[in-house]
Amino acid sequence: MTVARELRGVGVSPGLAVAPAAAVAWSFPDVEDRTVDDSEVEHEIDRLRDAVAVVADELGELRRRTEERAGSEEAGIFDAQIMMAQDEEFLAGVELLIRKNNLAAETAYEFKALEIRNAWESSRMSILRDRLADLHAIQIRMLAHLMGRASHEAWVGEQHGQVVLVARELSPGLIVQLDRDQVVGVISEEGTRTSHAAILAHSLGIPAVMGVRDAMKLIEEGEMLLVDGYTGTVVVEPTLDQLDLARLQASRRGKLELQLEGIAREPAVTPDGVRVRLMGNVDLPEEVEPALNHGAEGVGLLRTEFLVTGRTALPSEDEQTEYYRRVGAAFGGHQVIIRSYDLGGDKFPAAFKAPHEANPFLGWRSIRVCLDQPEIFRPQLRAMLRAAADRELALMVPMVVSLSELRDTKAMLVEEAAGLQAAGVRTAESLPVGVMIETPAAVVQIVDFAREAAFVSVGSNDLTQYTLAVDRGNAQLAARFAPLHPAMIRQLQQIRLAARDAGISAGVCGEMASDPIAVVALIGLGFDSLSVAPPSLPLVKWVIRHLPAAAAIEATTAALDATDTEAVTTVLREALGRHLDLRLVDPAGSLPRLSGGTSLPLTL
Ligand code: PEP
Ligand code: MG
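Above: the input record for the complex with magnesium ion. Below: its predicted structure, written as tokens.
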């Protein structure tokens, strides 16, 4: 008798799929360390350039197909890949290796790509990992051409009945070529909600779960799979009861989605009239449009690390100015809060000598790096000031532990504004400067910070990490990473009260703001602004529109007296359950639990 097994990942494209597994096993081709004679060097460079041209054509064709099947926004994914494939800096590096070391084109290409892969692979930044997937896809394509091999996309042409595709990693090129009638769902070991393959699966309506650890090992070819793209659950050889329950939950989710679609333009206001400013977190330029489409009222956290990480040179002041201006214009009429570089830990520009540290997350990072390296920080400040001449921008300083960090930043800003004015450059005279509350030290001194900051915004990811001494990236500690720990709730209250006394805005821009249960506490405490990743905007707004602030306040008052995470969670959950159908927002109830584990946030 077969026994049902449950695997967990992240639901990146909603819907249910039931079909046998079909593995698409692809890996990097083994590239030989091949050298060539001097006389062949030019030929190798020609082969490299020819392969780039062919790959660019192929990607152009995929772009066209994607535009037809999914729309122009999605087709842009391939513009990014084409740019990456044709990146002159990269190709010049490959050519140099061919010329200097007499390497064959594929060997040189592999070496150069490895350099970037190594830098990006160790990063915990999801944006870099997402780009890594694009790099992998281009690399496989290039190597296939240079080595005369079939690429992984050859799988598409093979004959199968209805299947769920299981892969280590999925490329957007593969996804867009899938026949929707044949491939009813996809699962992969790698990939995040924001990876391009995930975005395309979502647009094409293919239920997808990514980040399923060891899926290729744990799932046998032909085994029946139930893929729940809503909850990120995969059941191998499901029972009939599990199938029935999953279908019931899926129909509920479908109804919820319809409701969510209808409220994109509605305000985030509780039934008893409390207005919340619901903003978007934007990590990458391509997230601007989804945030706007989901009705974000500005940007509560514009992460700027993508401008420097994984690149060989620091971005120019003009490039930054242009980016901040563009985002500011896109959200015209709303504020865009730009966070200064949160570098360090694992996020360092390649052009920058990163120190080796035993504890990088307690090390030289974030505002510490910026203040110590004015040559990085000052151009960023100047770019913000210039862009703010005709845009509603604010600066937010991350990871502060001492008032001096806020004061020094403001002083630099004043100096840079004066410098720009003296040089006759069009600039804002100053910017509102707020702080991210991410450390217990900042909470202890919150009254002092609130007196000198234009606003405060809680980075709950780091505040949880530093309060509970739990590494936010350590999967083994996931159950202990508890933003609803009493120590967190009580700190949040201190932050809110200090901001209110100082008459400034208090927001939350960490992941906690997208958890429906936590939203009860954040509304109950009176946070006036929440900022979440674009896909979470509709659900958070829906929760706010169903939850009377009075009920949230009552539940939060009880939660503040609770002495453990479970008690806090229970009281908040019960309050929410009185105002909306919890089965819709609590994925843990979606499938019968076969094993322990933490529930994952709802993916829409
Ligand atoms: C946070 O720490 O909650 C936050 C929003 O910043 P980041 O996740 O970028 O560290
Ligand atoms: Mg942080």
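Notes for the reader.
Residues 41-69 form the longest helix (29 residues).
The pocket of magnesium ion (ligand 2) is lined by residues 398, 438, 459, 461-462 (CB under 6 Å).
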